[in-house]
Specification:
Number of strands: 3
Structural class: alpha+beta
Strand order of the largest sheet: 1-2-3
Helix content: 40-55%
Bound molecules: zinc ion
Length: 95
């Protein structure tokens, strides 16, 4: 009986531990998203984006081909905009 109780407690502990690790990973991804500049700040800092043409350009390679992805899932409202040419993460938006 004590052995079954020990296994149940161990199982609950493992589930709790895995939920904690998953939440920690999600927090780390969110903090990384927050470190990206918002689009207005990015365009202010990046002279290629301020050159008068519409849209932003990659500050690393100058490409204007930029894709946007959901941070954790396709329909995530936290969007990351990345260069299609050099794959650098450029700025964030929220939709
Ligand atoms: Zn680029």
């Amino acid at each position: 009986m004590k052995l079954i109780a020990a296994f149940i407690i161990l199982g609950i502990g493992l589930v709790y531990w895995s939920v904690m690790l998953k939440q920690r990973e999600r927090d780390r991804i969110h903090r990384g998203w927050l470190r990206l500049p918002v689009v207005d700040k990015y365009n202010q800092r990046n002279p290629l984006s301020r050159s008068g043409r519409n849209g932003s350009a990659c500050c690393y390679c100058g490409s204007r081909s930029i894709r946007q992805l959901g941070l954790e899932a396709r329909n995530d409202q936290r969007r990351v905009h990345a260069c299609n040419h050099c794959n650098a993460n450029l700025y964030r938006t929220y939709r």
